[in-house]
Amino acid sequence: MFKIKSEVQFDMAHYLSGYDGKCSNIHGHRYRLIAKLKSETLHKEGQLRGMVDDFSNFKEALKQIEEEFDHKLIIENNEEGKVLSKKLSELQNNFEISFVNYRPTAEEMSRDIFNRLKSKGLSVCEVELFETPNNSCIYTED
Ligand SMILES: [Zn+2]
């Protein structure tokens, strides 16, 4: 089995809707995203001969995810989130806010990122998302 991995980091703000504690407040993290692709065999011919995948494809896919989240406020797409987004845009219309259809925990985000990589045709086998230097979530489909 061959596995290749690559990493990107991004800064993102979020809060946890319906949570009793510090994480209910808007706050930010420096996220560290490590993704792995796997293959039993290597490509046998052409441009990808001897590779699991081209690192430049892999890095480009991770860069797109980084750009999706970097320096954004990520809000859960629920009633509270819609009201908050509306109020923030009334204060300043250039806040960059992205909605997600889940509570933006490391667990949900790592699954979302896994599926985004998979939908780009990559042979992703694992996504690890560090929310702090000591805490991460690992998502696989095993
Ligand atoms: Zn947090």
From TrEMBL:
It is an enzyme of class 4 (lyase). InterPro entries: 6-PTP_synth/QueD (IPR007115), 6-PTP_synth/QueD_sf (IPR038418). Zn(2+) binds at H14, H27, H29. Its cofactor is Zn(2+). Binds 1 zinc ion per subunit. Pfam families: PTPS (PF01242). The active site is at C23, H71, E131. GO terms for molecular function: 6-carboxytetrahydropterin synthase activity; metal ion binding. Its EC number is 4.-.-.-. Pathway: Purine metabolism; 7-cyano-7-deazaguanine biosynthesis. SUPFAM superfamilies: Tetrahydrobiopterin biosynthesis enzymes-like. The keyword Metal-binding applies. Keywords: Lyase, Metal-binding, Queuosine biosynthesis, Zinc. It catalyses: 7,8-dihydroneopterin 3'-triphosphate + H2O = 6-carboxy-5,6,7,8-tetrahydropterin + triphosphate + acetaldehyde + 2 H(+). One of its GO terms (biological process) is tRNA queuosine(34) biosynthetic process. PANTHER family: 6-PYRUVOYL TETRAHYDROBIOPTERIN SYNTHASE (PTHR12589:SF7), PYRUVOYL TETRAHYDROBIOPTERIN SYNTHASE (PTHR12589). Belongs to the PTPS family. QueD subfamily. This is 6-carboxy-5,6,7,8-tetrahydropterin synthase. It comes from Clostridium saccharoperbutylacetonicum N1-4(HMT). The gene is queD.
